[in-house]
Structure formats: structure tokens, C-alpha cells
Amino acid sequence: MSQIKELKERSFLVYGLGLSGISVIKFFKRNKIKNYEIWDDNKKNFFKKKRSKNLISTLRKVDYIVLSPGISLQNNRKLIRYKNKIITDIDLFYLTNSKSKTIVVTGTNGKSTTCKLIAHLFKKNNLKCSLGGNIGNPILEIKKPKNKYIIIEASSFQLSHSKYICPNYAFFLNLTNDHLDWHGNMKNYLDSKFKIFHLQNKNDYAIIDKKFKNKFVRKKFLSKLIFPKIKGYMKIKLKINNSYLTSKLNDQNMSFTYTFAKLLKIKDSSFVKTINSFKGLPHRYELFLKRKDTLFINDSKATSFKSTQFALSSSKNIYWILGGLPKKEDKIKLLKLKKNIIKCYVIGNNTSFFINQIKGKINFSITRNLNKTIIQVLKDIKTQKKNIKTILLSPAAASFDQFKNFEQRGNVFKKLCRKYVRKIN
Q1: What crossing angle do the helices spanning 268-276 and 111-124 adopt, rounded to 10°?
Q2: What is the C-alpha separation between 264 and 129, in angstroms, rounded?
């Protein structure tokens, strides 16, 4: 029996109608899978004909619950009871994928950049690939021709619910305190990341940071364990002419990509040529504007201090914009970074969280929103005689208290900087 035929004999509840939920419904329609219902706690007018009439009854009777990655099981009693039925759009992809090799990238920071680097590496070396998951198109909307690689960015939210994910190459970049309110604790967060290794076999590869070696070995996974060639990359880094990628911010992403390039037997000369043509992603230490002796950097994607400290260590004479929705248990440890910061501007609805950690360590003002902040920063830099000054948005916090997402926050920052830049001309 084919995999699609088997799925046609199962029943499903699509729970959550975000991008992934909608892609699951499209997948069902394409493959003529008809035995499904839908549920969304907020979108009550969507797909009325398929909407469950009784959620508890539906949860009880269906074979699978295809859960949106944004929905946590913490304190969700109606779902916890049926967690063994829960799968994801990534699971449906793996249950029906027989043609393509897959590369799954996860970690707290650097997932998107690493995925884009790998895709760029493939493109420039005449290897076919597609990219999706937590970046770009939902995974079920990617075509799966033979002899093609599928690169998947996987968040801990997706992995936490997944049961059938099985990549040929699994990247685990790093782990810092993040999403603990969603996962409940650090153990759950780490366990979700390790799901990418559970079903791998001896022909698959696990590329991980050495700090996770002991846990990997204890689990007795079957895949070939590879550590990033950091020393090898640092040697070849001297030949790379790409200021975005040669900053400290991207050393880890680059060492993983370089290690993968060696697995694919891509020559160093080709690797360097490829990397030199790579353009950085927006909102990740993005130098988008320069006026006279002032640099404007948008690092809105930095939603924890671990992410922000890379930007603070890579710049000098910083006017640092900090704040937003703080992450559970996050700590701001400035230590040697203080010398790089001239002044800090605290934005968002929870300024006290950040002020309590920076008070007495660095000069700061409470500006609450980006508009007031940019006006104040441009006034302040007039009194600074340093040769190069850096206006840096690296909030070390989520954006949801004032913005839809980090992309909107970054775009507003860039728009305001361009609007007011005439004040320093």
C-alpha cells in the first residue's frame, strides 16, 4: 500500500489555521484525502463545512491531530491527553517523501542564515535544492523531484510535536535560554531539538556542536557524528571577502556550512568563491545605511541577549536600542562589552526588566518607542567626537509587545532612520 493510500484510510484533525495549517489542508486536497476536520480557537469562520462540531469528540475519535507549531501543550489539558496522536506538517512530508534527500537545521540562533548559506552553496555548485519549513514556503508546498535536496529550517515548536522526522543530514547549531515559557523548561527545549536524530540510521549524518556530544552518545543514536571544523574554517576565513560573513556573528554558521561543504567534497577554492557572493539576510546584523561617520545596523532578529552579544562585540561606539518582550530567565551580562557601548535606549512595555539589569553599568535613557528613540539618538550623537559611531537595534527581546514580529520591528527601524537621517547630514 502506498503512503498516500494509507493516509487516505486515516482520519485527521487540523488544529490551527496558520500558514502550516493551511498548507496541510491544501496537501489533503491535492492528494484527495477527505477524512479530516479543522479547528482554530480564533478563526471560527474558516472552512465552515470542515469545522469540527464538537472538539473533544473529534480529538477522541481521529487517528492524527496535525497541530500548528505555534500551539504549546503547556497547560493545554484538552490536547495533552491526546499528545500521542499529535503530528506536524513536517511529519506528513516525511511520511510521503521517497525521492529527495533532506537537510534539517535547528538551533536557537543562526538557523535561517545557515539554511540560506547551504542553499547558496548548492546553487553555486550546480546542485539542485529547495528550501522551506520555518523559512520561506511551508514544507508541504515544496516539490520533491528525484535527485534533489530539501533544506528544512525546523523550530523547536515544530520538533516538539514531530514524530517522523528523519533527515539525511541533521544540523544542531546551538542552544540558549529561549522559548522556555513555551517548552516549560530547558530539558524539554533540548529534547525537542534532539528529535532530529531519533530516526536517523548509520548512513545519515549528525553535525552538532561538541558541547552536546555526551548527550548524543548516551542516546546511542545511529548516525555518523560530525563536529564543525572550526579551526579549518578559521584558516579559510582569511581568504573570504564578505564583511557580513566574516564578522564574529557568523563564525558558527560558517563553520557548520564549511563542514558540510567538505562532506559534499566541494573544494576550498569553490567554497570561498561561493561565500564571497552571498548576501546577508535582513534583520540579522544588517548594515543598511551609512552617513558620514555613522553606521546604522538592524539586528532586530536578536530576540535574546545571547544573540545580541554578538552584535555588541562586533561594533564600537554603540548607541544601543534594547527592549521589547523579555525572554524567560534571560540575563544581560555586559562584562567586557561595556567598553563598546556609549549609551543604551530602552524601548517596549516592560522597561523595568531591562533597567534592573543595566542600571549602574552603562548610561541609558528610557525612550519606550522607536520613533522617540531615533530622534533622541540623533541628538546625542552630535556631541560624540568618535570617528565611527554605530546606531544599533539589537533588542535582546521578542517584538510582540509593540510589533507583529521582528521583521516589522526591523522595517520600522530602517524607515525611521532614513526619515530622520537628514538631521546628521
Answers
A1: 120
A2: 14
The C-alpha atoms of residue 308 and residue 248 are separated, in whole angstroms, by: 12
Q: What is the pTM of this model?
A: 0.89
Which pLDDT score, from 0 to 100, does residue 243 have? 85
Architecture of the domain spanning 3-87: 3-Layer(aba) Sandwich (3.40)
Task: Report the distance separating Cα 79 and Cα 76, nearest Å.
Answer: 6
Contacts of 284 (CB under 8 A, 6+ apart): 112, 113, 249, 299, 301
H-helix segments, 264-391: 268-276, 305-314, 351-358, 370-380
- The pairing of beta strand 64-67 with beta strand 86-87: parallel
Can you give the pLDDT at residue 1? 42
The CATH number assigned to the domain with range 92-276 reads 3.40.1190.10
- DSSP assignment of 155-196 equals -HHHHHH-SS---SEEEE----S-SHHHHSSHHHHHHHHHGG
Kindly give the parts of the chain with pLDDT less than 70.
1-2, 145-147, 180, 423-425
CA neighbours closer than 13 Å in the CB half-sphere of residue 419 = 12
Between CA 394 and CA 297 the distance in angstroms is 8
Q: CATH topology for 286-424?
A: Protein-Tyrosine Phosphatase; Chain A (3.90.190)
Pairing between β-strand 294-298 and β-strand 286-291 as defined by DSSP bridges? antiparallel
pLDDT at residue 214 in the model:
94
Decide: helix, strand or coil at residue 204.
coil
Phi, psi of 203 (to 5 degrees): -95, -5
Distance separating alpha carbons of residues 348 and 370, to the nearest angstrom: 9
Grid coordinates belonging to 268: 576550498
